[in-house]
Structure formats: structure tokens, C-alpha cells
Design goal:
about 500 residues, globular, mainly alpha
Length: about 500
């Protein structure tokens, strides 16, 4: 495996080198970087031209300029990169760090959400092939895949930002909207859970009534501007996660795994009281410390209850602890939504990746950092969602028709075990390839999204370099995207060996 990785790294390095030479060449000869100054009547145009020639080393041949860039990149091995200056004399290293931070913040979240939601929808659609849920997922996938990115972005700016900001100033949901939302929730859950017609009608009716009651209650108490979960709901969410993880791993046969999960929930409730002061006014180091304590406690609880299935108990306990921690963080975010609205009455901006000079406590700062992610993240997630769901569905349908899956069923294994332990693991092998290409592609494909929402990310850096015929920012963009593509493909190869032991040989 090590020899394979080293060989792949060598080939990838050669490809990156040849690609960088070609990209530098076509960027340099794509126009005249001094064209705007040659036509300028400004008295300082000549001084500006001399400064630009000096900043971009225009007196040197293109291959000398490329060598200067390459030697600067070689210093990255010692974590001392020198990417030079752009046409205005600004340090490209600083610009790249800021741009990569904005784009990776956006792309990482969008990819993570697209994988979770898309793969889950694809698995459920394959299990319920030709059902109403399957047809709905198929329709949504083709619809989202065919939508132009810029058009979706503009619609989200109108309805997700401008009209939402108007609504949140005095939030209220009409009776008609409440009924429509409740019916949609009922239809979705009925098609998702399946069963005979009577069971679907009962499930849909109960879900619709619960949704109608919840929305009416939230509207009556003004929950939209002063939301919260509270400890009882946090415990309920964590317990539900523990039960779900127990069912997915060992089913209902091993009670010790369930006891480990519930004990983790109880320990989390005790920790909620002990660390409440840190939770209300935290810092990032304190959050990491509390998460570390939670994970250690979960490992100890899983080891204590596990017995013969100790490893499974530990992982279920860890998952339950993470769910408890996530619900606790969500509760604090919801509690600080009202204070955030007081500081920023129109919370969702249509331009930019943050509010300049915004000041506030920790959780309101997280709101300001996070609301700017919502609209562009939704755009990128929706576009990627289609491919993940369709590929997962096709891969699952192919896998569950294999002979070893039929053998597993004939041995009397439950459908949960057949799907989760036999079919899913092999069905995920093609998905790893899509994830690798999609992550690297989103970094470059976010150019349109960043332009519409005014993000100063990698897209703006790349576009500025092309507009000014400046190879510095363009090559910085290539350095990040190319390296990301190589690393993600390497991780995909390693994931193949993990998912299918036959590949290791």
C-alpha cells in the first residue's frame, strides 16, 4: 500500500507540474497586463506602470517568471511559501490564506451536508424502489441537477434573505401556510416510513397533526424570535440518537449497547449542570475541552457496558455523546437568536461572508459567522445533492441484487443487518470517487456562487487574476485546487481498501 501511495504521489506531482506550466503560459499570453495604464491619461500612469512591471517581473521572460514562482512554491515544504506579489503589490500569500479560508469554510460544509443527505436519500430510495418516495427523490434530483447555479442563487437571495428578513421583523405563519406545511410533513413521513395503505394514512395523519400543533404553538408563543430547546428536549434528542445507533448496529437483541447509550445520555445531563457556566459563555478552547471530556466519558461508559461487543458499545456511546453535545450547542444558538436580532435586525445578508465590525458575545458571533453561510451553502448543497442521491441509489440497487446479499437473506439475517453490514459497505465504494472529485471541483465551481453572493474567496481571487492578466493569483488558485484534487483522490484510494479488504491485496 505504501509503495502504491508513493507511486501515486510521484505521478500526481508530475501532473501538477505540467499543468502549472501550461496554466502559467496561457495566463501570461492571454492579454496585456499594462493595457489599462497605456490608455490612461492619469499623470501618474507612468509611475504606476513601472510599479506594476516591478511587482509582476514583466521585464523577465515568461519561463524565468515561472521559475521564480516555482522556487517560491518549493519553500512550502518548509512551511515558508513565497508566492510573490500581485499587480498592485499586495502579498499573494495573505490573499490566498483569506480566500482559501472563506471558500473552504463554504465548500466543506456544503460537501458534508450533500454527502449525508444525498447518500441517505439514495439508500432509502433504493430500499423503497418505485415507491412514492423514490419517485419524489428522483424528480427532485433531476430538477436540482438541471437548475442553473446563478438562477438558484438569485432566487435564494430574494426569498431566503430579503423576504425572510422582512418576515422575521414580525414573524407570523398564516393558517393556510400552516396547513400546507403540516400536509407536506405528513406526506413525506408517510412515504418515507412505508408500510401498507392503512399504516401510511395513520402515519401521515399523526405527523400532520403534530406538525400543525407544533407550528401553531411556536407561532403563539413567539418562538420564531425567542427559540430554545431546553434540557428535556436535549435529552430526548440524544436518547433518540442512541436508540437509533443501537438499532442500526446490533438491533434490539443486545440490551447492553442500549444501556451504554442511555448511560451516556444520563452522564451528559449531569455534565450539562456541571459545565453550564462554560456552555453559556464559552471559548473555542473550552468547547474543545468539553467535547474531549464527553468523548472520554463515552469511551469509559461503552467499555464498562460493552461486554463481548465492547467496540460497538464504545462507538455507540461516542455517537450519543456527539448528539448530546450537538443538541446542547444548538440550544445555546437558539437562545442567542433573539440577542443576535437585536444587534442585526436584518440577519441574513445578500452580499459578503461576514458583517464588518460586528461585536457581541460568543454565540451571537457564531450566528453572524454562520448566517452568511446559509444561502451559498444551500446552493452548493442542492447542486451536489442530485448526483450523490442518484449514484447511491444506482449503486445500492446493483449491490442488493448480488448473490452474497441473497445468501445473507437466505441465512435468516434481518433486513437491517443485510442492508447496513452487507450491502451498504460495498455500495459506498463508487461514492468515494464522487466525493473526491466533487470536493475538489466545488472549490473551483464555487466561482459563480461566490460572485453572486459577493464572497471574497478563491473564485474572486481567480477571476481577479484573469481580469488583470496576472498569473500570481491564478497560480495560487491552481495550487490549492490541484493539491486538493490530488489529496482527495489519494484519500479515495485509501477508503477503497478500508471499505473492501480485497482491494488491499
Amino acid at each position: 500500500m505504501l509503495r502504491f501511495i508513493l507511486r501515486r504521489l510521484g505521478v500526481s506531482a508530475l501532473i501538477l507540474f505540467l499543468g502549472s506550466v501550461f496554466l502559467f503560459f496561457i495566463t501570461v499570453f492571454s492579454g496585456d497586463p499594462l493595457e489599462d495604464l497605456r490608455e490612461s491619461r492619469d499623470r501618474t500612469a507612468e509611475q504606476q506602470m513601472e510599479a506594476r512591471i516591478r511587482n509582476m517581473n514583466l521585464n523577465e521572460p515568461w519561463y524565468v517568471r515561472y521559475w521564480m514562482w516555482l522556487t517560491g512554491v518549493a519553500k512550502c515544504v518548509t512551511l515558508n511559501c513565497d508566492l510573490g506579489t500581485d499587480s498592485r503589490g499586495a502579498d499573494i500569500n495573505t490573499a490566498l490564506v483569506n480566500a482559501a479560508g472563506s471558500t473552504l469554510r463554504l465548500v466543506t460544509l456544503a460537501t458534508f451536508l450533500a454527502i449525508i443527505i444525498g447518500v441517505t436519500m439514495g439508500i432509502l430510495a433504493a430500499i423503497r424502489q418505485y415507491s412514492g418516495f423514490d419517485y419524489a427523490v428522483t424528480f427532485a434530483a433531476f430538477l436540482f441537477f438541471s437548475l442553473p447555479v446563478f438562477w438558484v442563487a438569485v432566487l435564494l437571495k430574494e426569498y431566503g434573505a430579503i423576504r425572510f428578513n422582512n418576515w422575521i421583523a414580525d414573524p407570523a405563519i398564516s393558517l393556510t401556510a400552516t396547513i400546507v406545511i403540516a400536509l407536506l410533513v405528513g406526506l413525506t413521513l408517510a412515504s418515507l416510513l412505508g408500510g401498507d395503505m392503512r399504516r401510511r394514512l395513520l402515519t401521515g395523519a399523526i405527523s400532520a397533526v403534530v406538525a400543525f400543533g407544533a407550528i401553531t404553538y411556536f407561532d403563539t408563543v413567539g418562538w420564531w424570535r425567542q427559540p430554545a430547546l431546553g434540557l428535556p428536549l436535549i435529552i430526548l434528542v440524544a436518547a433518540a440518537a442512541g436508540v437509533l445507533l443501537t438499532y442500526l448496529t446490533v438491533g434490539r437483541g443486545n440490551r447492553k449497547i442500549l444501556y451504554a447509550a442511555l448511560t451516556t445520555v444520563a452522564a451528559g445531563a449531569v455534565g450539562w449542570f456541571i459545565f453550564n457556566g462554560w456552555i453559556v459563555t464559552p471559548t473555542y478552547p473550552l468547547l474543545l475541552l468539553m467535547l474531549g471530556i464527553s468523548l472520554v466519558a463515552a469511551i469509559v461508559i461503552g467499555w464498562f457496558w460493552g461486554g463481548w461487543d465492547r467496540n460497538i458499545a464504545i462507538w455507540v456511546s461516542i455517537g450519543t455523546a456527539v448528539a448530546f453535545a450537538g443538541a446542547t450547542a444548538l440550544d445555546q444558538l437558539l437562545r442567542n437568536w433573539g440577542p443576535f436580532l437585536e444587534r442585526k435586525p436584518r440577519p441574513i445578508s445578500t452580499i459578503g461572508s461576514g458583517s464588518p465590525n460586528f461585536e457581541g458575545p460568543f454565540w451571537t458571533g457564531v450566528w453572524d459567522w454562520g448566517v452568511q453561510l446559509i444561502l451559498p451553502t444551500v446552493v452548493l448543497t442542492v447542486i451536489s445533492l442530485a448526483s450523490y442521491s442518484r449514484y447511491t441509489r444506482a449503486s445500492m440497487l446493483e449491490t442488493i441484487r448480488q448473490d452474497y446479499v441473497r445468501t445473507a437473506r437466505s441465512k435468516g439475517l434481518s433486513e437491517r443487518v443485510v442492508i447496513s453490514k452487507h450491502a451498504l459497505r460495498n455500495a459506498l465504494i463508487p461514492i468515494t470517487t464522487i466525493v473526491a472529485f466533487d470536493f475538489a471541483g466545488l472549490i473551483g465551481g464555487a466561482v459563480v456562487t461566490e460572485t453572486v453572493f459577493g464572497w471574497k474567496g478563491m473564485g474572486a481571487l481567480f477571476q481577479e487574476g484573469l481580469t488583470r492578466v496576472d498569473p500570481g493569483p491564478v497560480m495560487a488558485f491552481y495550487l490549492v485546487t490541484g493539491t486538493a484534487a490530488v489529496l482527495m483522490n489519494m484519500m479515495a484510494d485509501i477508503a477503497y481498501a478500508f471499505l473492501d479488504p480485497r482491494i488491499r491485496t
